[in-house]
Design brief:
cell membrane, Glutamate receptor, metabotropic 2, mainly alpha, elongated, Rhopdopsin 7-helix transmembrane proteins, two-stranded antiparallel sheet, two-stranded antiparallel ribbon
Length: 303
């Protein structure tokens, strides 16, 4: 059931976190953007924890945690992913003749951008808690009036409305993931983020109508919510972190710094000349190609 999925997912998240911490100084972890990866894993862990909040007996505290935790867990995940894809898009979008190094791509800047995006969801939830105070209410089914259900007093429309900000984050992240799908930066991370977002869109498109259709059955609706939230976290683990874990644990020979030509990170005009020079010296230089454009890029040093 949902509890089993959440427990297994939480354990898997902790395992991934442990592997990343142990191999923190390796190229795969460095090139992934360690700071954002840890934030992302925190968001995935929160997604699994939300199952236990939704199955708990409704109370003022539980209802508050439901409102606060659901949107926040999603915003942590998708803010980190949006920051990652935006960074890749700006790096390769600016890789042209005479282009300067894009601003705000350092680890500290990336974390600040991510936290700013998360704060947007927190402000929305805070406003929701003020406008519609959390609490509980009793509900009886029309066909079975002898059955009384204790549930939180928020409306389904309000719950889904609080997720509108996350829908925006998902849409933007999917757009950037599509634009950078051919950019092999960070061990093809852009491609794996694309897989993550495409699958996430499918899950959300299926979840929203099911959530409304099952509104008359509280248990079914709660189960649907728990499974959907856990699936969203599992998609991130499976599509984004599993390939990195496979390299770290089973293909350590790939977990090395690639040999690149010693040119400027954002200069593309001298790429062919650098390639010829590298071939003459026996170096294993292969120019990075993104959307048909050759770009010289050393990714691990800046993340």
């Amino acid at each position: 059931g949902p509890v089993t999925i959440a427990c297994l997912g939480a354990l898997a998240t902790l395992f991934v976190l442990g592997v990343f911490v142990r191999h923190n100084a390796t190229p795969v972890v460095k090139a992934s953007g360690r700071e954002l990866c840890y934030i992302l894993l925190g968001g995935v862990f929160l997604c699994y924890c939300m199952t236990f909040v939704f199955i708990a007996k409704p109370s003022t505290v539980v209802c508050t945690l439901r409102r606060l935790g659901l949107g926040t867990a999603f915003s942590v995940c998708y803010s980190a992913l949006l920051t990652k894809t935006n960074r890749i898009a700006r790096i390769f979008g600016g890789a042209r003749e005479g282009a300067q190094r894009p601003r705000f791509i350092s680890p500290a800047s990336q974390v600040a951008i991510c936290l700013a995006l998360i704060s947007g969801q927190l402000l929305i939830v805070a406003a929701w808690l003020v406008v519609e105070a959390p609490g509980t209410g009793k509900e009886t089914a029309p066909e079975r009036r002898e059955v009384v259900t204790l549930r939180c007093n928020h409306r389904d429309a309000s719950m889904l409305g609080s997720l509108a900000y996350n829908v925006l984050l998902i849409a933007l992240c999917t757009l950037y993931a599509f634009k950078t799908r051919k950019c092999p930066e960070n061990f093809n991370e852009a491609k794996f983020i694309g897989f993550t977002m495409y699958t996430t869109c499918i899950i959300w498109l299926a979840f929203l109508p099911i959530f409304y259709v099952t509104s008359s059955d509280y248990r079914v609706q709660t189960t649907t919510m728990c499974v959907s939230v856990s699936l969203s976290g599992s998609v991130v683990l499976g599509c984004l972190f599993a390939p990195k874990l496979h390299i770290i644990l089973f293909q350590p020979q790939k977990n090395v710094v690639s040999h690149r030509a010693p040119t400027s990170r954002f200069s593309s005009a001298a790429t062919r000349a650098s390639s010829s020079l590298a071939q003459g010296s026996g170096s294993q230089f292969v120019p990075t190609v993104c959307n048909g454009r050759e770009v010289v890029d050393s990714t691990t040093s800046s993340l």
